[in-house]
Amino acid sequence: MTSSLELSFLQDGAQPAERVAGELADFISGAQRSIDIAIYDLNLTDGPAEQVRAAVRAAAGRGVAVRLLYNVDFPNPIPVPPPSQADTAFIASLGVSTKPVSGVPDLMHHKYLVRDVATDSATVWTGSTNWTNDSWTREENVIIKIPSTALAAEYAKNFVELWETGRVEGSGKYDLAGVPVVYRDTPVKAHLVFAPGRGRQMAHMIADRIAHARRRIRVCSPVITAGVILGTLGDLAHKSHPDFKGVFDRTQMAEVLGQWRVDPHATWKGPAFQAVSSALAFASKVTTPYTPTSVHDFMHAKITVVDNTVFTGSYNLSHAGEDNAENLLALDSAPLADRFVEFIDAVFARYAATPAAARQ
User: Fold this and answer.
1) I need a labelling partner for 266 at 20 to 30 A (CA). Which of 18, 24, 109, 260 fits?
2) Domain ranges of the chain
């Protein structure tokens, strides 16, 4: 047995940014040979910025090879997801090799780190969490740290592809075998998929599992716009189904509904989503509409649990996400699924109490 994977769940107002920065700094400080970072949004300030900068500089100073990819150039003023605001001055101050990846037309939306690839201590940090103060204090998010030489090699393959080409388009066009990892001394089968190469497969994997659920379904996503997932949830709503709870970002979905009304190819989606969100047990977080200077308090966790399988990573349940650089990790484990369900149920309970007037 190898070391156990570790989970960190973030909730709005539940933890200081310094705590998450310390967790990230500790992860970086554990690197002995290499650390490759693919991060959509990197914009830290104050103490958390200093904590992360010090850890990266110290790693580089002891000979660790550090490379950092980040997203740039997404111009849409109110997109879903909200645009990255990469702090290029901070990135330059790290003193390591960096490369911007254009977010036009599709995003470099990953949030992963690969530490010491091709060694026995290789470990992956992944999940939904960007590197911003608000991501660490005002958003629902998940962080997963997975010791696994085999899994690290798969993430490293994707990183090298993006690093060498500097392009989202064409990345992730390969099928990956499941690899064994460990959670609390019990084996877990991990299966990893990357978009855009396997973007359509991501949505269909989740939809197929939902369609065949036997015991429980949990959905936690900022938006739900993938047609196959909307259709599957619609079918679910019209028949006897397993225990279901879901959470989404109401403000972002309201923006999406407005976009669908004027898109002749998506007019069916608005009524479909309204029907699904009314018929099934959904809660929603009313968040602050995006501006560059507003608080970014999004419901940002990206998790689907079906029976004993967890799907998580950077992928929203979105049609646009199928064309972004994304990763989706499927983990089969009853105790692990129980832990994710516990988190989603807590988020559901918090936002199910939203006043009816705010939910219109």
Assistant:
1) 109
2) 6-359
Mean pLDDT throughout 124-142?
Answer: 98
For residue 87, pLDDT beyond 90: yes
Q: Environment class of residue 33 by beta-carbon count within 10 Å: exposed (0-12), middle (13-18) or buried (19+)? A: middle
Kind plus residue range of the DSSP H or E element containing 328: strand 326-332
Residue of 193, 195, 176, 215 whose CA lies nearest to 305: 215
The rounded distance, in Å, linking the Cα atoms of 98 and 137 is 26
Does the structure show a pLDDT above 70 at 1? no
Tokens of 156: 């490293």
CA-CA-CA-CA dihedral for 275, 277, 79, 210, to nearest 10? -100
Distances (CA, A) of 221 to 283, 284, 303, 307, 323: 11, 10, 6, 18, 17
Give the residue-averaged pLDDT of 46-55.
Answer: 98
Whole-prediction pTM: 0.95
Residue 332: how many CA atoms within 13 Å on its side-chain side? 8
Is the CB of residue 202 less than 8 Å from the CB of residue 326?
yes
The 3 state secondary structure assigned to 215-274 is: CEEEEECCCECCHHHHHHHHHHHCCCCCEEEEEEEHHHHHHHHHHHHCCCCCCCHHHHHH
Mean pLDDT of 234-247: 95
Q: Residue 78 pLDDT > 80, yes or no?
A: no
What is the tens place of the pLDDT at every residue in 148-201?
Answer: 999 999 999 999 999 999 999 999 998 887 999 999 999 999 999 999 999 999
Architecture of domain 6-359: 2-Layer Sandwich (3.30)
Ramachandran area for residue 215 (φ above 0: left; ψ -120 to 50: alpha; else beta) = alpha
Task: Give the C-alpha separation, 68 to 352, whole Å.
Answer: 39
Contact at 8 Å (CB) between 37 and 131?
no
- Collapsing DSSP to helix, strand or coil, 114 comes out as strand
Q: Are 250 and 352 in contact (CB under 8 A)?
A: no
Cβ atoms of 311 and 26 within 8 Å: the answer is no
Calpha distance 32→10 (Å, rounded): 28
Does the N-terminal peptide bond of residue 79 adopt cis geometry, omega within 30 degrees of 0?
no
